[in-house]
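Notes to self, D-aminoacyl-tRNA deacylase:
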Amino acid sequence: MRALLQRVSRAAVNVAGVDVGRIDHGLLVLLGLDKHDNRDVADRMIDKLLAYRLFADAEGRLNRNVADVAGGVLLVSQFTLSADTRKGLRPSFSSAMPPARARELYDYTLDALHRRYSPVESGQFGADMQVALINDGPVTFLLEVHGD
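result:
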């Protein structure tokens, strides 16, 4: 499982002209699901992204997590994060989770995130989404969690 975390001043997801998710200061999380991911991997990813320190403390060091700064989390499914780009000039999606299983695991991840933290907003799985953001810093990290 891959999560691209972006520290944002604000972010929004629009589907067919309608905002479906919006946050102010916080984290935009683009989530890629690989075919071997499962609920355990999702739970560990949630632990990691909620604890990850990418907000500055009083000395300007990245020592604070999203809860420390009372930030929002905007979770967006991002199929292309599962691409294998090691060879050639065209991405391979052979390692990506099939859509039906991916929807189920994304929904589980979103529900688990809602149970653990607030505020949480989301995109719409499988939709053609327009994502607007102001990356604060810019600060962007790629987190990866794999099954044991």
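- The domain at 2-136 is CATH 3.50.80.10 (D-tyrosyl-trna(Tyr) Deacylase; Chain: A;).
- The helical segments are 39-51, 99-116.
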